[in-house]
Structure formats: C-alpha cells, structure tokens
Write a structure and sequence with these properties.
There is one protein chain. The chain has 444 residues and is α/β, with parallel strands linked by helices. Among the domains are: 131 residues, 3-Layer(aba) Sandwich (Rossmann fold), CATH 3.40.50.10860; 161 residues, 3-Layer(aba) Sandwich (Rossmann fold). A 5-stranded mixed beta sheet has the order 1-2-4-3-5. The protein has a 5-stranded parallel beta sheet with strand order 7-6-11-12-13, sandwiched between helices. Strand 12, helix 14 and strand 13 form a beta-alpha-beta unit. Helix 7 packs across helix 8 and helix 17 crosses helix 18. The structure holds NADPH dihydro-nicotinamide-adenine-dinucleotide phosphate. The site of NADPH dihydro-nicotinamide-adenine-dinucleotide phosphate (NDP) has 25 residues, from helix 10.
C-alpha cells in the first residue's frame, strides 16, 4: 500500500464518526499523490502526512447563556488550531446547530491550504458553537457572544490565533465578541477580523469573499476564452458570501436569477435585486418570503431547487454538501458550463467528479473563496500599521490575490500533468508551501 493510502486508512480508523473531515482529507490526499510520490522518502521519514491530518490542538468548552425569559442554556464552544507552519492560526467562527468537532476539523483542515494559497503568512484554524442565532433577540446573541469569548480569549492572540466570521457570525456577532475581549483584557489587540469600520475593521472585508469568488471565476473564464458578460448564473445561499457574489456578478455583466436560505429559494427572472436582498437579510433578518413580497415577479419555492434552474454558471455559496450528484447531473443536462464554489466544500466528492468528467470548469472553495481570509489578513496588516486603506486599495489587493490564486492553481495542475483540474492544482499549490515549512521547522 502506498503512503497516501496508509495514512488515509489510519485517518478513517481514527475519525470514523466525522464524515465531513474524512471527505476533506480524502479529497486533499488523493489529489496531492503526484507530489507525495516524488518525495515519498522525505515525507515518510518526517511523518509529514500523519502530522498534516492531526490538528495541533482542539479546545472545547462550555458556554452558558441566559435567554430573555431568564432560562439558562448550555452550548458547546470549540477552537480547532489546526496547523501554524506558515503563520498564526486564522479561520472563522461558525454558530450553527450542526456544529460539532468533525465539521470544525474539516473546515480547519481546508483552511490550512486555503490560507497557504493566498500567499500570506497565515496558518489554519476554525472554531464555533452549536448555538443557533436564528430567532434570537439581539440581547440573547450578545449574552451568548460574551459568554463564548469569556472562555475563548485565553487561547487567541494577534500573533497566535485570529478568528473571524463564518456561518451565523457576521458584523453584529464580531462586534459583541470584540467588546467582551476588550473588557476582559483591557487591550485593543487585533484578535478578530471582520470588525466594524469604526473600531479597526477593513473596508471591503464584508464584500471580500463574494467579490473574490467572482474575481477568481472571471480570471479562470478568461484563461478558458469565456466571460461572464450576458451570462445567466445561479447562486445558492443569501448570506454574506452569496449577497456579495450576486452583487459582483451583476456588476460584471451577468444576470443572477436565484438565491436561497435553509427553508426556501427564489427564482427572479429579472435578476436578483441586491438592494432588496440586503434589506431582507442584513437589515430585517427575515426569510426569503419577504423578498417575494417586494418583487412580485419573482417566484418563491419551499425546500431546495436552485440547481434545477438552467444556467451558464453556478455558484454554491450556502454550506457544505449542498450540491450532490443528482444536482450535478441536472446542471450538466441544462447546459451549465462552470461551477465555482463560494462555500466550503459545497459539492460532494461524487458531484465534483461528475462535473469535472463532464468537461465543466470547476474551482474548489479553498481557492475561489479565499478572498475573505485574504482580506482578513489585510485587516491585520492595517491594524498593525494603525492605518486604514481606502476601499479602492483593498479591492485592488483582493483582486490581485484572487488572480494570482487562479494562475497558481492552474500552473500547479499543469506542472503535474493535470491541466485544467483546479482541484488538484489548488491542493498541490497549497500543500507544497505548508510541507516545506513543516519540514524546515523540524518535528513538532
Ligand atoms: P451566512 O451565515 O452569512 O449565510 C449562510 C447562508 O447559507 C444563509 O443564507 C443560510 O440560510 C444558508 N444555509 C446555511 N445552512 C444551510 C443549509 N443546511 N441548507 C440551505 N441553506 C443553508 O454564512 P456565510 O455566507 O458567511 O458562509 C457561507 C459559506 O461560505 C460557508 O460554507 C462558509 O464556511 C463559507 N465561507 C465564508 C466566508 C466568509 O467570509 N463569510 C469565507 C470563506 C468561506 P439561513 O439563513 O436560513 O440559515
């Protein structure tokens, strides 16, 4: 049995109850085989792959909070510090009822390669809680965030671990978390990114993941003689990533006709009205039925259905494994020519393989959604300099980073004989730098 298969066997044995983590590790290790084969002796001697798949540490803690009726609830809080070979741990916090250690290990593992791909000196981590912010009052969310930070603050620092937002953690939550950190420590450290603009946040951070996704997609399309101009696109999700992906796609001349949340989806034949969507989701925090009320020409459907709408390009921007094999078959049958992941691992392994075999362009989230973490790192730089860059400066840097990522993953794929396979390219480009740094720093 080869080295990759030995390690995969062992990972399956040790993490049998964590399917998302196994899925992420399988995809990465499978696709870096060409590099591992060339360096097998060195990697084996250093137990490189075994170390790569084992988080540096996992911190788990109890988070008690009191609801508006005075009842106390207990959630679980986590921080997975996965790998700091190339810089301090960096990765978001997710508040969602589905959060457990396996989800955060998958996200932390992906984050290691994503952060490496940005070209910036940041390691990989992820954290969060099984707290569900849906339907909670601002005061409940604040009390939860304060309790969560009362434990987390012991383990983070501007040169050790810098969390940010993710599903269920946006500007409001980051503000409450940051306020509690300051209250506990009396320090104005850059220990969180995604902060408000009045207290150290960066312009364009809110837009960065969605905009970056479109900059990456645009470059990949250009490299393949295609463009977004006049094309019909479908987007899933209606959160931070989806909203700004839709906004940038429309600025680049595409028409986006769908979005969704966890209960239903919208088909808007005239193109999603981003101002209405922002009002529904960012201001009113309402369901998508409110979008339909404001846009009578649009259709609202309960359940899932975004992938059934014929399109040129698809952008999954909601959550992991939201695009399965049957969805992929429908997209291909309806003439879709490319899938660009905005969420983390939204496409199942089988669906990814089907999409690639069918000749569609496909970019993995760890590359195409890296604009968020890259801009978080730019926020850290601005905090360190005590300066704020203009929106145009940050946007230009974001675009540069995304264009570089597109070329780096394309070049890495080509170098190893997999031209056009951006999954292989992204994993190899991300891995090579981390592997070199891990070996150079000795065994730990
Ligand atoms: P948000 O919480 O802002 O939005 C998530 C969206 O996805 C909401 O519309 C939500 O609907 C929907 N959603 C969540 N779970 C499901 C589900 N099971 N089925 C259908 N819809 C669902 O999160 P983000 O936009 O920040 O994150 C979206 C994805 O992008 C995640 O995979 C995240 O890890 C990834 N990502 C985010 C980055 C960022 O900067 N924010 C950076 C890189 C990646 P509802 O409101 O009903 O729950």
């Amino acid at each position: 049995m080869g080295y990759v298969d030995e390690v995969l066997e062992d990972v399956k044995k040790k993490n049998a109850n964590e399917p998302e983590f196994l899925q992420a590790v399988t995809e990465v290790l499978d696709s870096i085989r060409p590099v591992v084969d060339r360096n097998e002796e060195l990697y084996r001697k250093n137990a490189l792959l075994e170390r790569l798949v084992e988080p540096d540490r996992i911190i788990t803690f109890r988070v008690p909070w009191t609801d508006d009726n005075g009842k106390v609830h207990i959630q679980r809080g986590y921080r997975v510090q996965f790998n700091d070979a190339i810089g301090p741990y960096k990765g978001g916090l997710r508040f969602h009822p589905s959060v457990y250690v396996g989800i955060l290990k998958f996200l932390g593992f992906e984050q290691v390669f994503k952060n490496s791909l940005t070209g910036l000196p940041i390691g990989g981590g992820k954290g969060g809680s099984d707290f569900d912010p849906h339907g909670k009052s601002d005061a409940e969310v604040m009390r939860f965030c304060q309790s969560f930070m009362s434990e987390l603050y012991k383990y983070i620092g501007e040169n050790t671990d810098v969390p940010a937002g993710d599903i269920g953690v946006g500007g409001r939550e980051v503000g409450y978390l940051y306020g509690q950190y300051k209250r506990l420590t009396g320090r104005y450290d850059s220990i969180l990114t995604g902060k408000g603009l009045t207290f150290g946040g960066s312009l364009i951070r809110t837009e960065a993941t969605g905009y970056g996704l479109l900059y990456c997609a645009e470059e990949i399309l250009k490299m393949n003689g295609k463009s977004l101009e006049g094309k019909t696109c479908v987007v899933s999700g209606s959160g931070n990533v989806a909203i700004y992906a839709i906004e940038k796609a429309e600025q680049l001349g595409a028409k986006v006709v769908t979005c969704c949340d966890s209960t239903g989806w919208i088909y808007d034949p005239d193109g999603i009205d981003v101002a209405v969507l922002k009002d529904v989701k960012e201001v009113k925090r309402a369901r998508l039925t409110a979008y339909k009320e404001a846009r009578p020409n649009a259709e609202y459907h309960e359940g899932r259905g975004v992938w059934t709408v014929p399109c040129d390009y698809a952008f999954p921007c909601a959550t992991q494994n939201e695009l399965g094999l049957e969805d992929a078959k429908t997209l291909v049958k309806n003439g879709c020519q490319g899938v660009f992941e905005g969420a983390n691992m939204p496409t199942t392994l089988e669906a990814t393989q089907y999409i690639q075999k069918s000749g569609l362009l496909f970019t993995p989230g760890k590359a195409s959604n890296a604009g968020g973490v890259a801009t978080s790192a730019l926020e850290m730089s601005q905090n360190a300099e005590r300066l704020s860059w203009t929106a145009a400066e940050v946007d230009a840097k974001l675009k540069d980073i995304m264009v570089n990522i597109a070329h780096n993953m394309s070049d890495a794929a080509e170098k190893y004989g997999f031209a056009g396979n951006y999954v292989v390219g992204a994993n190899i480009a991300g891995f090579e730098k981390v592997a070199e740094a891990m070996i150079a720093q000795g065994v730990y």
